[in-house]
TrEMBL record:
It is found in: Cytoplasm; Lysosome. GO terms for biological process: cellular response to amino acid stimulus; negative regulation of apoptotic process; positive regulation of TORC1 signaling. This is Late endosomal/lysosomal adaptor and MAPK and MTOR activator 5. It holds the Pfam family LAMTOR5. The lineage of its organism: Eukaryota, Fungi, Fungi incertae sedis, Mucoromycota, Mortierellomycotina. Its main location: cytoplasm. The keyword Cytoplasm applies. Keywords: Cytoplasm, Lysosome. GO terms for cellular component: Ragulator complex. GO terms for molecular function: guanyl-nucleotide exchange factor activity.
Amino acid sequence: METGINNILNKLTDSEGVLGVLIADEHGLCLGARGIAKASSAGFIASIAAHAKELTELKGGAVSKDDTPTISVEYGNNTILIRSEGNHTLAVWKS
């Protein structure tokens, strides 16, 4: 699994405009970080994703995979995109 995560991190980091990438597990443990992404932010990133998912569940009824929210945090000229898939949360810092 570690090789797969490293491959994903490396591929995303090499993408145009990407400044950093982080993957966290459902407990907020950092599974890997590249670029400007700080491993210490993994818990916050996972928490943001979990709370956003809870907000979408308030609509009443089951939430499909297509309803998984993508969170965009804008600061200065940069953006952090956060999304959970299964037991993992991905954060991508973009310029």
